[in-house]
Structure to design on (82 residues):
């Protein structure tokens, strides 16, 4: 990926009065830039640490509920420590 494409993908897209965390289709979350999504039976997350240029993807075979959301948070927190 070119530096110009990288910069555009991670540039804040809206004025700060509207949102100070919305990027191209990513959001800032606890120092990471990422996106979560779900569909029937699937729960996914992709996060990127811009300073390290490192990231991870989590795929779950289950619907979103309080248990899977809690598991997603714990997995994310653990991966951030690596």
């Amino acid at each position: 990926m070119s530096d110009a494409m990288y910069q555009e993908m991670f540039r804040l897209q809206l004025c700060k009065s509207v949102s100070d965390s919305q990027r191209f289709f990513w959001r800032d979350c606890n120092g990471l830039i990422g996106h979560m999504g779900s569909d029937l039976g699937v729960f996914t997350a992709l996060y990127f640490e811009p300073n390290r240029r490192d990231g991870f993807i989590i795929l779950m075979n289950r619907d979103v509920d309080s248990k899977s959301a809690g598991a997603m948070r714990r997995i994310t927190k653990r991966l951030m420590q690596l």
Remarks:
- The chain has two helices and four strands.
- The radius of gyration is 14 Å.
- Strands lie at 27-29, 32-39, 42-49, 54-60.
- The longest strand covers residues 32-39.
